[in-house]
Amino acid sequence: MSAAISTDVCIIGGGPGGCATALQLARHGRACVVLEKSTFPRDKVCGDALSGKVMRTLERLDPQLAMAVKAESAAMPSWGVTFVAPSGRALRVPFSRNTGLGEAPGVILPRSRFDDLLFQRTKDTNAVTCLENHTAKRFDRSGADWRISCTNGVSVQARLVIDASGANSHFARNVAHLPMEPEHHAAGVRAYFNGVRDLDPQGFIELIFLKDLLPGYLWVFPLPGGRANVGLGLRSDMVRKRRVDLRTLLLQLVQEHPQLKARFTEAKMEGPVQGMGLPLASKRRSLSGKSYLLVGDAGHLIDPFTGEGISHAMISGVYAADVAEDMLSHGDTSAAFAERYDERVWKRLGKELSISTRLQRMAHKAWLFDFVVDRANKNPALADMISSMFTDLDLREKLKKPGFYMDLLLGRSSVT
Ligand SMILES: Cc1cc2nc3c(=O)[nH]c(=O)nc-3n(C[C@H](O)[C@H](O)[C@H](O)COP(=O)(O)OP(=O)(O)OC[C@H]3O[C@@H](n4cnc5c(N)ncnc54)[C@H](O)[C@@H]3O)c2cc1C
Fold first, then answer.
1. Are residues 157 and 12 in the same domain?
2. Do 115 and 156 lie in a common domain?
3. I need a surface site. Which of 35, 265, 354, 416 has the fewest CB within 10 A?
């Protein structure tokens, strides 16, 4: 039998959630081991959009790394989002009032590159031991500790497990008992294209709400050099009910849909259409237990309306590291102490996730998208207010209230 590596904290997974956890633990001076099943650089199926929240978290964790991400030649600075309503009419919503000035709030960068930058920086950090090509497959308790066994025979003895192993986490499903629930889960597919017409020169990401795809949407996210990440996502219960193959649907839509086909006549697909699940935070689940914490997709923390999950993985990773440090320094790894992690995550993300859950539930109404987009296009004050909703949660909360739409309909002053 091979010897066990001994550590305080074993992190499963070296994606954005696992790396943020390790980097924050290192800031506390706490050593950890990261087990990662792949060898970097590795790909991750994603839309590749790094929101302002990702960039702010990165700046706090490691300013040099944030600068390296922004300076990447493969990165497209992103200044806003264009919503395309089922009617085909579009609304351009900048992320900030100062579009084009200073640094762009968001970035679009292929995950193969972003994750590699993050992982290499984590690997180079003194207190962190990163073991690539190590797949964690068994989690046994031995006394107060965990014994984590990898498929290659290596095992790790740890006081705490922080599971950041993503949407298909074995630990989350079998140890923490978080099942995949189709109504709180989405399926997504994406492919890279070059030669797509009319990509936004300011890197605005496009969310295209096609009538037959609601409550899901299709996206076109521009990349440098005329490339684009194009994909679509739909709640898993709808995928089952409609018996739809999303890979086929994506290709059909870009080739045949009247709103899209002209833009794709010259486009060439690079590589296959690839798919992956999105565990959505439309239901509040427990993120911890006796001597373990769940981070990012393993804790089902993806925004149920937008599909954004990288920032939530990193933010939850930072909190997991803070609480893990508290647990170890107090010598208390109980489930009751670990709940402090849940409290911090929900305090930070709970409000926006509940707004997004309401928005997702309204998102099957094609007329509502048409109506809001038409009104906002005629009314610069309303367009400005929608833009501010990206940074102002109180404003965003208005969107989930039926009164907002009634005011809009009647042209009342709260929205005009
Ligand atoms: C189609 C699609 C589009 C998306 N678009 C966006 C977007 O544009 N912007 C956005 O913010 N979010 C997007 N998301 C969500 C985003 O991809 C995830 O929320 C994010 O990757 C979560 O990070 P993570 O660190 O929790 O998990 P991951 O990024 O999945 O990382 C988990 C890591 O754990 C490793 N691992 C898994 N099992 C084991 C094991 N047993 N042992 C050791 N290692 C293991 C994996 O190799 C991986 O490196 C999208 C998701 C999908 C599916």
1. yes
2. yes
3. 265
Residue 377 pLDDT class (50, 70, 90 cuts)? confident
Indicate the SS3 state at residue 80.
strand
Residue 203 CB less than 6 A away from ligand 1: no
Q: What are φ and ψ of residue 157, in 5° steps?
A: -100, 125
Cβ–ligand 1 distance for 303 under 6 Å, the answer no
Residue 384 belongs to some domain of the structure: yes
Which residue is listed with tokens 């107090």?
330
**Eight-class DSSP state of 388:** H
Of the candidates 337, 78, 96, the one whose C-alpha atom is nearest the C-alpha of residue 222 is: 78
64, exposed or middle or buried, with CB in 10 Å at 0-12, 13-18, 19+? exposed
Q: What residues contact residue 237 under an 8 Å CB cut-off, 6+ apart? A: 182, 183, 185
Q: What's the 28 CA to ligand 1 centre distance in angstroms? A: 25
Q: What is the mean pLDDT of residues 165-187?
A: 97
Ligand 1 contact via 302 beta carbon (within 6 Å) = yes
19 lines ligand 1 (CB under 6 A): no
For residue 53, the one-letter residue type is K
pTM higher than 0.85: yes
Give φ, ψ of 122 to 5 degrees: -65, -45
The torsion defined by the Cα of 234, 20, 64 and 310, in degrees rounded to 10, comes to: 10
Output the CA torsion sign for 32, 25, 112, 48.
positive
| DSSP string covering 322-348 | HHHHHHHHHT---HHHHHHHHHHHHHH
